[in-house]
Amino acid sequence: MQVQNQALEKENQGLKAKNQVRDRDYLIGEAIVQIREVVDHLQDLAVQANVLSTKYESVSDRGRELALLLDRVKTLGLRAKAYL
């Protein structure tokens, strides 16, 4: 009886470990999907930032500041592309 209980306990531990691995793999997969969506969005923003920075770069101090910020968005978009 004790041997049988030990065997069942071992089997139960093995199932728990498999479930933990499956759950972890699922969460990692979900995180990857979300990261790809963020990267796609960031790349869209980078394209828009490129257009806007060209338009506003020499209009005024505010325009130059905006162009600088938009250039930073472009840079982030390029960096994020490496993670796809």
From TrEMBL:
Name the domain of life this protein comes from: Eukaryota
Q: What is this protein called?
A: Uncharacterized protein
